[in-house]
Give the backbone structure.
Amino acid sequence: MADDDLDQLAVNKLLLEAMGHEVVVARCPSEALRELERSAPGLCMMDLRFPNAAGQPDSREGMALIRGIREAGYRLPVVVLSGWPADLYGEPEEQMVSRILVKPVEIPVLLETIELLTSVSAPSRSLP
């Protein structure tokens, strides 16, 4: 789970762990890519807007993470949790994600999405 909002990370981590999921958190896109390599998860949940070099929330940072995941060969489902989904609509990265959920996401919707995507998940990384 990648989000720069530490409260969101903590709440979602507690919720998902209580439901039996193993959760690895990342606070920025570069940390998320490192964790993908290290832990090989079955699903990636991420925010869209991360701070840019000027410290301003910027959806281009999240879109770069989506591209980085796919360019590295990861085929795992990617779920974007965002209060600004319109930033992603119509962009090439929209086609690279499995679901876009609008924050605040209701817990049953989040859990149902995870169950659906992890029960049919492809291998986490394609073979060379």
